[in-house]
Amino acid sequence: RAGRGDGSRSTEVGRRARDAMGQDTLATSLRTALGPGPYRSFRATSHALQLGDVSADTWYGTASRALRDEDLLDAVVRSIPDAGVRSEVERAHRDRVDAGAGASTSEEAAHVMGEKGSVAEVLAPGLVCLRRAIDLETQAWLAERAFEVGEGKDGRQGFYNTVPGDAPGDAPVLRLNQGTRGRVILPVSDFPERLARIVRDCVRCAQTADSNTNVPDMNPTTALVNFYKEGAQFKWHRDSEDPAHARHDTGPPIVSFTVGLSADFSYKSRFEDSERRTVRLNSGDVLLFGGPSRMIVHSVTGVVPRTMPPMLRGRMLHGRLNVTIRDVGRGVIDSSVFPAYRVSYGGVQSEDSY
Known about the structure:
Elements: H1 2-34, H2 36-51, H3 56-66, H4 70-78, H5 83-99, H6 101-104, E1 119-124, E2 127-131, H7 136-150, E3 160-163, E4 173-176, E5 181-187, H8 193-209, E6 222-228, E7 234-237, H9 243-246, E8 254-260, E9 263-268, E10 277-281, E11 286-289, E12 297-303, E13 320-326, E14 332-333, E15 343-345, E16 348-349
Antiparallel strand pairs: 1-2, 2-11, 3-4, 5-6, 6-13, 7-12, 8-11, 8-13, 9-10, 9-12, 14-15, 15-16
Helix pairs in contact: 1-2, 2-3, 3-5
């Protein structure tokens, strides 16, 4: 018996050694195919799959776009240790084949309310938080596009100003154009059409959760892209709106995306109110406020450390990216005061600009 037991242990040790060598070979193949940065991101996404933070459909969509070698993709799927997770991924593969891979893996596909556990929270009439509304792949895509425009190339305004060094003779340095926050203001048309489609999908989801009266239709015209450093805050303010809408609680919604670090968003009805409410916005959440909540007074009271999703590490600067989409209607934006945001309606500047 002792001999058979020793042989069994030797067999098990040998099997584990072969598995380890196989994993090492697979990891080398992945690093070669993807490159160092994408490989680290892919590993983080795969870890999130194991934890249940990413659905099998989302993971398979990301993997099939990244790995053009079908044999390598099959090897990765076979290497998934959890049989249940592996079965779900294989099901996702079959679904994509049945539906036509070209249509379902298009870069332009908008994944709204697509993550596991997505839910719409109606915080007040017209104030809706879509939890986990955009999946990790869409968050990474939005971050990439936003930081491209935030670089300020080709004469465009960007997140940073170049300022003189602290001492005479020091090299110029880059600083965020609003202190602990950088901002760019652009027409939505400067982004791929995918963003406008995602916005419209978010509005429809919020209308379903609340109502079309409280969350009116909107035409996405303007993007304010804000990048916050860890620990940053932003003052209490209202977002400017056409007085014709503001007086009657009919303003189209602001659609606000959070990507990266989480943030605490506080709001109240009037500046003088002592009572306020706070909601934590995590990466992938989308907050909409329109209709009766369009003119809420609000503030970013904190950007929360150690809340960056693993998949986004290395794919965006460390901080919170906030992309807010607006329908300015007949409003005219005064670009001469950038990075401040000033909008005039009928030749009269809105009092709620900031």
